[in-house]
Design a protein that fits this description.
Layout: E1 3-8, E2 17-21, E3 24-31, E4 34-39, E5 45-50, E6 67-71, E7 76-81, E8 84-90, E9 98-105, E10 112-118, E11 121-126, E12 129-138, E13 141-151, E14 155-160, E15 166-171, E16 176-181, E17 187-192, E18 197-202, E19 215-219, E20 224-230, E21 233-243, H1 245-248, H2 251-258, E22 264-267, H3 270-283, H4 290-301, E23 304-309, E24 315-321, E25 332-338, E26 350-355, E27 362-367, E28 371-375, H5 377-380, E29 388-393, E30 405-410, E31 416-421, E32 426-432, E33 437-444, E34 449-453, E35 458-463, E36 468-471, E37 477-480, E38 486-491, E39 497-502, E40 507-514, E41 517-525, E42 534-537, E43 553-556, E44 561-567, E45 574-581, E46 589-592, E47 597-604, E48 607-614, E49 624-630, E50 636-641, E51 647-652, E52 656-662, E53 674-681, E54 690-695, E55 701-705, E56 708-713, H6 726-734, H7 742-750, H8 754-774, H9 791-805, H10 816-819, H11 824-836, H12 844-862, H13 869-886, H14 913-920, H15 925-935, H16 942-948, H17 950-953, H18 957-974, H19 984-989, H20 993-1001, H21 1009-1016, H22 1023-1038, H23 1042-1051, H24 1055-1065, ...
Antiparallel strand pairs: 1-56, 2-3, 3-4, 4-5, 6-7, 7-8, 8-9, 10-11, 11-12, 12-13, 14-15, 15-16, 16-17, 18-19, 19-20, 20-21, 22-23, 23-24, 24-25, 26-27, 27-28, 28-29, 30-31, 31-32, 32-33, 34-35, 35-36, 36-37, 38-39, 39-40, 40-41, 42-43, 43-44, 44-45, 46-47, 47-48, 48-49, 50-51, 51-52, 52-53, ...
Helix pairs in contact: 3-4, 7-12, 8-11, 8-12, 11-12, 12-13, 13-14, 13-15, 20-21, 22-23, 23-24, 24-25, 25-26, 26-27, 31-35, 32-33
Length: 1319
């Protein structure tokens, strides 16, 4: 996922250097102010060494490295720039890391022209002379010490002899090679040449007994000369052979090549060639064909081979025999072979041989252009076409690309990119091969702004100096524009591209770019009341995936208001399509994605704040999706989009880029909305800071650092490759879930789609069994229509099918569908398989949740009549709670994780209030209490009861007392010491002080036994002993024994003080509620009511927890507010109830279960209906849309669609019903009871079963509502049904409430049952 694909680091202007680091062979060359190290065979970047690492003042200058030398023996790289020298060595600690070894600075007038280093000796050629330095250790630091200096005329080549006794130099002033003694600096010989010398090298002798001086030189006419000494003058070199074009080819052939491109001659390294030949002969010992004989002859005769590449790309191989023999008169040269033309498509000027990973091959590198080949000696020396196979190729060098990159611009679809450089020039590139390669498409010079058009094939440049926008066509097209601050392109519906410029006064200039024409369309302003801080383009990367209207511009005001704009069709102006109020200011950077997600950077004292905002803002969603504070300064933002419109954000820093993708929200984990899915770091191969980065087509990502570019992308997947691409990974993290995913199953269970869950589990079981057979699996998906099905109908169909099966008594074989149905045996097999083979892409938590949900579904199926829906919801949440606590930290290395993003799943102290409220509204509380006790292994203590919210949801006072007594006993029995203080609080609340007195009698080990026995023996119904108990309570408070102090407050009959200790000192309002309910014998006591108003409600408002607030209002008998708090802003609720709150937290509308609770409560009682009538239809509409968006964020898209399809917007009817029609007129038969008892609200199907409504508020006496009997002959006025307008929605609801209250006062007359009504 997003691996390096290509590096564009500049290309060599001349020759290369070699470095052998077995098993790799490296190529090195200077590029601008850096040294580039490449793999010789693949040309893949290994490392970039920057000169400014040693000399920071050279950073961002136009100076370039002029000389480079490599010592393979010491693994030392030496580079020179002007008068400075830097040496790098391979780190001994980290094998692939290079560190600065040493530096050297010469005098200002000694500009370095050439270098060579070998075995601790450094030869430095300057414009004034030649110097030799030796490497010494000074204070354990490597230092270069000057050995000698001689005057020389600008040497351009310098090379140590293999023996290090001599050094050869070449000057640009004459055509001679000068030899110097390395020890003394004395010039020993001058060897004149007829033409300028271009290359110089020493031959490494193969004989171990002597160290002969054999030198090769190549002159500008491509003639190679061989110099070696004679017997009587062993230190004096003489010319013994010259290989020119005519010595290699017949005269007629050579003459034909004189007029063409010049040829180039190269010597082939004897050692590298010999090693490859040895391996070939060892692998083919028995073969005796012509090819093997040729290889054997070359090896046995010890020929030196020379390669000449002609202008037509053909190759001539010349052999020179007897170089190691004496006397030199035995030298013999001959042409070994002449290959066909175009062997080299581009004849190079430099050629090098290096070892190949395959020992039977040789790596051949050439430049320019930079290219690498695999040379097979067996085929090459047989003149076969497959003897030289290209493995990698670089681009031609463009000197202008040595300037630093300033920024990137791309085409709207990302298939072309423009690179702007510090020299005001740049180039256009096109992305090819599915985002894995860039090719040049054009260049420009002297531009301030650039836009790239036609997928990178065309550019338009703008210069501030003359105000000209130039379209680079033939001929050039220009348009004069005002001064611009930014320039960008947008797709146009007409097919041509739209160029948009923004002036300093935020005027918008629009131009249309056609094939060879620029047209100025309009110049206008956005209709804003105040000048914006930014006007930015909305990223158009994904516009081609949708045909809907797209916002083109984003404006950001100083006050933090984001506004989105589309151009009018008439080109007359801009229209605002939406606004988001962020509440932030002082923006540093902003970017907007294709789907209108906006990333904002605001600098602060703690670092840069990154926020991501959705464009949808309502009273239920502020639009904020993510907030993160980064200590490191954020330098760049850029958006991309997947094919399914998922947004990806690249956050650029100085040394790395964070790739953020949207993270699917879950029902239990409150993770951030966005998460890091990939970090791109370039420090491992380059020291340059990142100057810009940009997304391109196919999910490719381009990074610019210095003058270099690095392309990241997903490699084309081979057959059978299971690796994920970036788009696949993002879709898995935030796309629609599979049917079997535990979150989808959970939501289906919460929304009473039990039969659907059964079908999904059956499909999963069959798919998993199939996966076991062949290792592959085709997941079976449930048709989306099943998510819209009526569970009641499904149950009836299932029952009918089973009943029909029972009609036949003969022993018929079971149908296949019956065998594969949902059953205990199927569930057992499935769970066993899942435990052995976890499903792919599920975290350990999700895997455990899936198994528990499957088990829970089986229990529901077997006990469906005993457990209601709300009880089921509580049961699922309780089991998930224990799973999360059991797996407090998910193991990222688990095989079941499969690279999924680990979530923060720390241990939770309690269930969420949401889950407790489901149990509160359940009618199966005794079953839930049993399940809760079983979850605690039958020994529930108060920490368990608090975690499960027993005191909040258990409605029966007697059950609560019984449970508290069990908790008291378990607290007492929990420790080995049997401490009576652990249970005193609960027993005193239950009024069982005598029982505690008995427990103290058994606590002989306790130091307080005697005191407590004496004290508890008193009668606490007397005021004096109550006062004594209160005094003891205060004493215990001072000793910070808070729970025991609360117990003594109860003993002293001061419930209020005990409750205050629980709330303030213990921070446990649940314990306070439990004590108040038990002591006050109900839910209406003043102490309990004060807990609700003074503690629970302020806590709910501070946390933004609507579930807790709804529960408190319900018990306060304000059930209208219990409904309204689910949808109404908390500020309005606080004002309506006069809640004393100092802080109102962020409203949490990220839970679709809020809609489920609202649908249950809105018509449950008359008070709830009153609260519903006070919620506007528009608010309810926005609420449902928000819940559907939350479903989509959870990956449950089918359930989101089901919600908006099936939601019933309850509206009270305000129609005035006239007198009933006479029986003679009504031919529909007698009315059914359902029709007669129809409620005033048109309820959703789930609520229409309700035949009565709980009257929980006083209804004032109302006048008779029955109309008078109709009189004969009197025309009766028809009463039309009123249409409820949205703006009068609230009034309409309140009017409907009045009708509802009237109907509540009337006696409902049910007609007698008439069987004929059904026929």
């Amino acid at each position: 996922m997003l691996q390096p694909q290509q590096s564009y680091v500049g290309y060599p202007a001349a020759g290369l250097q070699q470095l052998l680091l077995p098993p790799d062979a490296l190529l090195l060359y200077p590029s601008a102010d850096s040294v580039i190290i490449l793999n010789a065979r693949t040309l893949a970047l290994t490392r970039v060494l920057a000169f400014w690492e040693a000399f920071p003042r050279t950073f961002h200058t136009q100076d370039a490295i002029t000389s480079l030398s490599v010592d393979s023996g010491m693994k030392l790289i030496v580079a020179a720039m002007n008068t400075r020298i830097v040496a790098w060595s391979l780190s001994g600690v980290q094998q692939d890391a290079w560190r600065i070894h040493s530096t050297l600075v010469l005098a200002d007038n000694q500009t370095i022209t050439t270098l060579d280093n070998k075995a601790g000796l450094l030869a430095v050629g300057t414009e004034k002379g030649l110097s030799i330095y030796t490497l010494i250790l000074e204070n354990d630091l490597p230092t270069w010490s000057k050995k000698w200096t001689v005057s020389a005329i600008s040497p351009i080549l310098v090379n140590f002899a293999p023996s290090l006794m001599y050094i050869a130099t070449v000057s640009k002033k004459d055509n001679a090679v000068r030899l110097y003694s390395t020890t003394s600096g004395r010039q020993t010989q001058i060897i004149p040449h007829p033409r300028p010398i271009t290359k110089l090298s020493w031959r490494h002798s193969q004989a171990s007994s002597r160290d002969d001086l054999i030198m090769y030189t190549i002159t500008s006419d491509s003639a190679l000369r061989i110099f070696l000494p004679v017997l009587d003058a062993p230190e004096h070199l003489q010319l013994h052979a010259c290989l020119d074009l005519f010595s290699s080819l017949p005269f007629s052939v050579a003459e034909s090549h004189l007029g063409s491109s010049p040829s180039h001659v190269f010597w082939l390294d004897r050692e590298i060639v010999g090693n490859a030949l040895n391996h070939i002969l060892q692998d083919h010992p028995q073969e005796d064909d012509a090819r093997t004989r040729r290889i054997s002859e070359i090896k046995e005769e010890g020929w030196d081979l020379f390669l000449r590449i002609l202008g037509d790309g053909s190759v001539v191989v010349t052999a020179v025999a007897n170089l190691d023999r004496r006397p030199p008169t035995l030298l013999k040269q001959f042409t070994l072979q002449h290959s066909a033309a175009s062997t080299f498509p581009h004849p190079p000027s430099y050629l090098y041989l290096l070892p190949n990973p395959d020992p039977g091959l040789i790596t051949l590198a050439t430049t320019p252009p930079l290219a690498a080949f695999d040379l097979s000696p067996l085929s090459f020396f047989d003149a076969q076409s497959n003897g030289l196979r290209p493995t990698a190729k670089g681009l031609d060098r463009v000197p202008e690309e040595d300037s630093d990159i300033i920024r990137f611009v791309r085409t709207p679809e990302g298939k072309g990119v423009g690179v702007l450089r510090s020299n005001r020039g740049g180039g256009a590139w096109r992305i090819v091969e599915r985002g894995t390669k860039l090719v040049r498409a054009g260049n420009w010079s002297n531009a301030d702004f650039v836009v790239v058009l036609e997928k990178g094939r065309q550019v338009a440049t703008y210069s501030k100096s003359d105000g000209l926008l130039t379209l680079h066509t033939s001929p050039l097209q220009t348009v004069t524009l005002p001064l611009l601050e930014s320039l960008f392109t947008l797709p146009s519906s007409s097919g041509s591209e739209l160029i948009v410029g923004v002036t300093p006064d935020f005027s918008i200039v629009q131009l249309r770019a056609e094939t060879s024409k620029l047209t100025l369309c309009s110049e206008n302003h956005l209709p804003l009341t105040s000048p914006p801080q930014f006007i930015l383009p909305v990223d158009p990367m994904a516009w081609g995936m949708s045909h809907a209207e797209h916002d083109a511009l984003l404006s950001v005001s100083e006050a933090g208001v984001l506004a989105f704009w589309v151009p009018e069709n008439s080109d007359a102006g801009w229209r605002c399509t939406g606004k988001v109020r962020t509440g932030r200011s002082g923006f540093k950077k902003a970017r907007c994605s294709s789907v209108k997600k906006t990333a904002l950077i605001v600098p602060g004292s703690d670092g840069d704040e990154l926020t991501i905002w959705d464009s949808t803002e309502s009273e239920f969603a502020s639009g904020l999706e993510y907030r993160g504070v980064y200590q490191e300064s954020i330098l760049d933002l850029d958006w991309s989009s997947t094919p399914d419109m998922q947004s990806i954000l690249a956050v650029g820093f100085l040394r790395h880029v964070d790739i953020l993708c949207q993270q699917r929200s879950t029902y239990f984990d409150e993770g951030p909305g966005w998460t890091l899915c990939r970090k791109i770091e370039i420090q491992s191969f380059t020291p340059y800071p990142i100057s810009d980065s940009i997304w391109l087509a196919h999910g490719s990502f381009l990074v610019g650092a210095g003058h270099q570019m690095y392309l990241f992308g997903d490699s084309p997947q081979a057959k059978g490759d299971s690796s994920e691409t970036l788009f696949e990974y993002v879709a898995r993290q935030n796309g629609p879930l599979d049917d079997y995913h535990p979150q989808m199953l959970l939501q289906c269970l919460l929304w009473d789609k039990i039969e659907l869950v059964k079908d999904i589990i059956v499909n999963l079981a069959h798919d998993v069994e199939h996966m076991e057979e062949d290792g592959k699996v085709q997941w079976t998906s449930v048709p989306v229509e099943r998510f819209f099905g009526n569970e009641k109908t499904a149950n009836m169909n299932t029952a009918q099918k089973k009943r029909y099966t029972m009609l036949f008594n003969e022993p018929t074989p079971k149908e296949e569908s019956e065998e594969e149905g949902f059953s205990r045996s199927l569930v057992a097999r499935l769970i066993k398989t899942l435990e052995a083979n976890p499903l792919p892409h599920l975290t350990p938590n999700e895997q455990a949740h899936l198994i528990v949900l499957i088990q829970t579904t089986l229990e529901i199926s077997e006990q469906q009549r005993s457990l209601d829906s709300n009880g089921l919801r509580y049961l699922i949440s309780m089991r998930s709670f224990y799973i999360i606590n059991h797996r407090a930290v998910s193991n990222e290395n688990s095989p079941s994780s499969n690279g999924a993003i680990p979530r923060e799943t720390g241990r939770r102290e309690r269930l969420r209030y949401r889950d407790m409220i489901w149990a509160f509204h359940s009618e199966s509380q005794e079953l839930l209490l049993s399940a809760s006790t079983a979850a605690c292994n039958g020994k529930m203590v108060w920490t368990d009861a608090r975690a499960l919210g027993i005191a909040l949801w258990l409605n029966s006072l007697e059950s609560l007392k019984t449970q508290l007594e069990l908790i008291a006993r378990n607290e007492y029995m929990a420790g080995d010491d049997r401490d009576p203080t652990a249970c005193s609080l609960f027993y005193f609340a239950l009024g069982k002080s005598k029982l505690v007195h008995g427990l103290w009698r058994q606590a002989a080990w306790h130091k307080e036994q005697a005191v407590m026995l004496k004290f508890l023996a008193n009668d606490f119904s007397e005021p004096r002993w109550r006062t004594a108990a209160l005094k003891n309570a205060y004493a215990l408070l001072s000793k910070r024994r808070f729970e025991y102090a609360a117990a003594f407050f109860l003993l002293g009959n001061s419930l209020k003080d005990a409750v205050n200790v629980c709330i303030k000192q213990l921070g446990d309002f649940q314990l306070a509620v439990a004590l108040a309910r038990v002591v006050e014998q109900g839910n209406d006591g003043p102490i309990l009511q004060s807990i609700f108003t003074d503690t629970v409600l302020p806590t709910a408002f501070q946390l933004g927890n609507r579930w807790l607030g709804s529960w408190a209002f319900w018990l306060l008998h304000r059930r209208d507010l219990a409904v309204r708090i689910l949808l109404t802003p908390l500020q309005d609720i606080a004002a309506a109830f006069d809640v004393r709150v100092t802080e109102i937290g962020e409203p949490h509308y990220d839970d679709p279960s809020l809609a489920l609770l609202f649908s249950q409560l809105r018509s449950k009682t008359l008070q709830a209906a009153k609260g519903t009538s006070e919620i506007s239809g528009r608010a309810e509409f926005n609420f449902v849309l928000q819940m559907s968006r939350v479903f989509c964020r959870m990956g449950c898209h089918a359930l989101a669609l089901d919600l908006v399809r099936s939601w019933s917007f309850e509206r009270p009817s305000t129609a005035v019903h006239g007198p009933p029609a006479s029986p003679q007129v009504d031919q529909r038969g007698p009315p059914s009871p359902t029709v007669s008892r129809r409620p005033i609200f048109p309820l959703e199907p789930a609520l229409r079963r309700r035949t009565s409504i709980v009257i929980d508020m006083d209804i004032v006496s109302l006048p008779p509502t029955r109309s008078a009997s109709p009189e004969r002959g009197v025309d009766h006025k028809e009463y039309p049904i009123d249409t409820i307008k949205e703006e009068n929605d609230l009034l309409a609801r309140k009017a409907g409430l009045g009708n509802l209250m009237k109907s509540a006062k009337q006696d409902v007359q049910i007609p007698e049952f008439d069987m004929n009504a059904f026929f």
